[in-house]
């Protein structure tokens, strides 16, 4: 059964409705390997600003987030916002960096990787390039389901297909929040110890979409590069994300000014607001 495995010594840091794990990139790799070694069904979430906005809009995602083994800050606005709180996130941990690092780890440890979603051409190309990049990597399976809702029989067959492949890592490219909902619903049946929705990472791995230069990533402007690449698809989304960020910043500023204990209140207010019901 999937359970929230946050270490009690490192409680999640609540930022804009998300229980973010205060981990460095290396600590994240270590924690995910711990999940693999434990062998119990689990998933982790790489949460960017868009995912924070989706969580704010859809209350069902709160349960999805609390059920996850880890919720990682895949977005510089979340890291910046953490500086208003009593504890800070140490750094951004992006899915686009984490997936190849996990594949490199898998190639050394003998872990099996499954790629699910995306188009057949993109997922096959991503698998081929990963094997070239990391000799010895075991790709347990690559599958692209139809781009439509699956019947109950098709869903059962898909879960059985993945189970038969016995992967240690399952990377899902279904889009947000469809991928997170799907993993939360089927995690236990899948039986995979480390699963994640990976978004555009599959396109990056396949070489179909180049990533922003490192200096843009470091200063939190990767979204500008992505907007330049796909203005028609991303302009409306990024506009909504910016409005959400301004709203949350305004809430943070109001909270800091309204209470004498300042930044402590921000953390207390968010953690209490998302406390699961007894």
In words, what does this structure look like?
It is a single chain. The protein is α/β, with parallel strands linked by helices. It has one domain. Helix content is 55%, strand content 13%. The protein has helices spanning 25-38, 49-57, 60-67, 76-82, 95-109, 120-133, 152-165, 178-190, 201-206, 214-218, 222-229, 231-258, 263-273, and strands at 13-15, 18-20, 44-47, 70-73, 112-117, 138-143, 169-173, 194-197. Helix 6 (120-133) links the parallel strand 5 (112-117) and strand 6 (138-143).
Shape: globular
Number of domain modules: 1
Can you list the strand order of the major beta sheet?
A: 6-5-7-8
Number of strands: 8
Largest sheet: 4 strands, parallel
| Average pLDDT score | 89
Helix content: 40-55%
Order of helical and strand elements: EEHEHHEHHEHEHEHEHHHHH
Number of helices: 13
Task: Tag the structure with descriptive keywords.
278 residues, alpha/beta, 4-stranded parallel sheet, two-stranded antiparallel ribbon, globular
Concise overview:
The chain is α/β, with parallel strands linked by helices. It has 13 helices and eight strands.
What topology emerges from the helices and strands here?
Elements: E1 13-15, E2 18-20, H1 25-38, E3 44-47, H2 49-57, H3 60-67, E4 70-73, H4 76-82, H5 95-109, E5 112-117, H6 120-133, E6 138-143, H7 152-165, E7 169-173, H8 178-190, E8 194-197, H9 201-206, H10 214-218, H11 222-229, H12 231-258, H13 263-273
Parallel strand pairs: 3-4, 5-6, 5-7, 7-8
Antiparallel strand pairs: 1-2
Helix pairs in contact: 11-12
């Amino acid at each position: 059964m999937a359970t929230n495995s946050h270490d009690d010594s490192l409680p999640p840091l609540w930022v804009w409705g998300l229980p973010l794990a205060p981990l460095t990139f290396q600590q994240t790799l270590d924690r995910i390997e711990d999940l693999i070694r434990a062998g119990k069904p689990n998933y982790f979430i790489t949460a960017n600003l868009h995912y924070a906005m989706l969580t704010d809009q859809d209350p069902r995602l709160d349960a999805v987030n609390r059920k996850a083994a880890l919720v990682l800050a895949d977005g510089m606005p979340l890291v910046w916002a953490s500086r208003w709180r009593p504890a800070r996130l140490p750094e951004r941990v992006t899915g686009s960096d984490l997936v190849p690092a996990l594949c490199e780890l898998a190639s050394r440890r003998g872990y099996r990787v499954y790629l699910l979603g995306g188009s057949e051409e993109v997922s096959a190309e991503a698998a081929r390039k990963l094997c070239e990049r990391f000799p010895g990597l075991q790709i347990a399976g690559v599958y692209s389901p139809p781009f439509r809702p699956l019947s109950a029989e098709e869903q059962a067959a898909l879960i059985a297909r993945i189970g038969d492949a016995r992967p240690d890592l399952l990377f899902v490219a279904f889009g947000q929040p469809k991928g997170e909902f799907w993993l939360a619903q089927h995690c236990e049946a899948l039986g995979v110890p480390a699963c994640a929705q990976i978004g555009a990472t599959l396109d990056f791995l396949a070489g179909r979409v180049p990533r922003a230069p490192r200096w843009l990533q470091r200063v939190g402007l990767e979204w500008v590069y992505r907007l330049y690449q796909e203005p028609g698809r991303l302009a409306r989304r990024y506009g909504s994300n910016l409005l959400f960020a301004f709203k949350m910043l305004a809430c943070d500023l109001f909270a800091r000014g309204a209470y004498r204990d300042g930044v402590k209140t921000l953390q207390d207010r968010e953690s209490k607001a998302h406390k699961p019901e007894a």
